[in-house]
Amino acid sequence: MNATQGSAGAGVQLVRGLSELAVGKDLLVCDIWGVIHNGVEAFADSCAALARFRAGGGVVVLVSNAPRPFHLVRDMLDRLGAPRDAYDAIVTSGDITRGAIAERANLPVFMIGPGRDRPIFEGLGADFVSVDEAGYVVCTGLFDDETETAETYRATLEGLLARDVEMICANPDLVVERGDRLIPCAGAVAALYEQMGGRVLYAGKPHGPIYAAAFDMGERLKDATIAHNRILAIGDSIHTDVAGAVAAGIDVLFVARGIHAHEVMTPDKLTAASVNEWASRQRVRPTALIDHLRW
């Protein structure tokens, strides 16, 4: 798809490539799923753009709402064909969640999510119990995201709410791309619980702790303090990537090809009119918009 260069209205700049925004930036805080891969394969253009930024002296910290430790996300990127020269480090909501679990070592826990997410508890000595005995709940996703929705869990959430059980949401994303489909994530379950009156601690984007960790990582890698106006976030979710960047006070490049493609894209290309219409309906707006990440 071809982006039309220039202002798209509502203060959102429509750009052809990352190169238009990279000047004056020292750190990229980049989303993973939907930006550099779709769960099936890595996007060559996106990886090449990040590698080009690094080659010019910049630092790239990948920031993901994956409910797993960073090394497992790195392994997944390897399998999908994303080269390691595209990034310097990875910070995940799983890493932030592990810190929250460690702080609750004296409480028994119930996990909502698939078995593949169990490594989030490795080495933390968690005491797993039934949902009726839990002192807190960690939600990493749905048990079966192919067939279930957040509503599947309403009865379970009602029981937790009756006991005022806190939920830690290890992945605040509402949906994620899997090939050409949108799959519900832990954030959808957590949002329903919160709507019902439940207490939720969100470990990942758009909330502050994961951005603080990413900024700290970037400064350590750069071995220098990095001003917020020299940081650029990149992501495909208005609710997590854009909202989180705006709250953190940094510029953000929105990738339209991701989970909001059905809202933003015209059949063949982005236009100033389509971007302007979309931006006018958003609670928060990105600094710039691109169809897909490339240099």
What does this structure look like?
With 295 residues, this protein is α/β, with parallel strands linked by helices. 33% of the residues lie in helices and 18% in strands. The protein is built from ten helices and 14 strands. The chain has helices spanning 19-22, 44-55, 70-80, 93-103, 154-162, 186-195, 208-222, 238-248, 261-264, 272-280; strands spanning 6-7, 13-14, 27-30, 59-64, 89-92, 109-112, 136-139, 166-169, 175-178, 181-184, 200-202, 231-235, 251-255, 288-290. The strands form three sheets. Strands 1-2-14-13-12-3-4-5 form an eight-stranded mixed sheet. A hairpin with a 2-residue loop joins strand 9 and strand 10. It is globular. The chain starts with 5 loop residues before the first strand and ends in a 5-residue tail after the last strand.
Key terms for this structure?
globular; 295 residues; 33% helix; alpha/beta; 14 strands; eight-stranded mixed beta sheet; 10 helices; disordered N terminus
Q: What does the secondary structure layout of this molecule look like, with pairings?
A:
Blueprint (H helix, E strand, L loop, with lengths): L5 E2 L5 E2 L4 H4 L4 E4 L13 H12 L3 E6 L5 H11 L8 E4 H11 L5 E4 L23 E4 L14 H9 L3 E4 L5 E4 L2 E4 L1 H10 L4 E3 L5 H15 L8 E5 L2 H11 L2 E5 L5 H4 L7 H9 L7 E3 L5
Parallel strand pairs: 2-14, 3-4, 3-12, 4-5, 6-7, 7-8, 8-11, 12-13, 13-14
Antiparallel strand pairs: 1-2, 9-10
* SSE string: EEHEHEHEHEEHEEEHEHEHEHHE
Distance between the termini: 15 Å
What proportion of the residues is helical, as a percent range? 25-40%
Number of helices: 10
Q: Percent of residues in beta strands?
A: 15-25%
Shape: globular
What's the average pLDDT? 91
Structural class: alpha/beta
Q: Could you give the order of strands across the largest sheet?
A: 1-2-14-13-12-3-4-5
Give the uncertain stretches in residue-range form: 1-10
**CA radius of gyration:** 19 Å
Number of strands: 14
How is the main sheet built? 8 strands, mixed
